[in-house]
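Late entry, evening session. Most of the bench is empty. Finally got around to the prediction I had been postponing all week. Sequence below, unchanged from the version circulated by S.P.
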Amino acid sequence: MKIPLSKYSSIPTEQQNKRTLDLDRIPLRKVLAKINYEDTLAPRAVAKALPQVEKAARFAAQAYSSGGKIIFAGAGTSGRLGILEAAECPPTYGTDPDRIVALMAGGNSSVFRAKEGAEDDAVMGAKDVAPLISKGDCVIGIAASGVTPYVAGALKAAKKKDCNTALVTCNAKTVLKDADVIIALQTGPEALSGSTRMKAGSATKMALNSITTGAMISIGKAYRNWMVDLRPTNRKLVARAMRLVQNIAGVSPAKAKSLLAASGNNIKAAIVMGRLDVDSQTAGQKLARARGFLKDVIE
């Protein structure tokens, strides 16, 4: 897929924002106020796309709960947002890092320094995703412009493997068609023309947050609004895990600490042990029968 250079000017994120034509000739505070106003358009764009966000979240939940993968693919800012989303899932939800992954055009080195021409390589997009995917996986392409060849290649390869596919874009007229659902975040031209790390990036991050959070909640990785599958891998998270066990199981700090130790730092198991007065093995069995939904065990 090769987009004629003349066509790029019609992409919404490449157009000039008439509200910010004077950025280089107004006081800094007014510059920041104009940027701030443009930023307020990001959540509105996500709100309008919630039906499509829901479909993508269902794809992601279905893939993960059935033993499959969730894969993000993007270039530039979009690729970096995908990497951030994948990296945050294991500590937040206790997910397998090999089952929620992100692909970046140009490889990992492009996270910190852009690789020339990487996003224009559709063949590489297909090659990068091919060894990772199986039928039923969920592949989410991220392309603010809606024309990124790398993402097109990844989505096309995913469709050939019978994966469920989604595209997060800020171009409602995207040319990327190998997506079962298109999440078009219509943020319009940037305050600084073409700088899609701004409100386009903000809207994209919000949509990705909603997809993964919605998916994880729907497969039992939350209790009320607590992240009960988090991994306590540092002091802050250890303290959070103890508070969760204390609050939900209704036990003392000392008891919460001992329950966590006995459960192997499995927060949900520790809570079941405290609430139902059972051992770790029994708690695990009860959670397994409830498919991990804590509310179905303790309520």
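Two things to note before I forget:
Residues 25 and 41 are 23 Å apart (CA to CA).
The chain has two domains: 5-218, 235-298.
Will write this up properly tomorrow.
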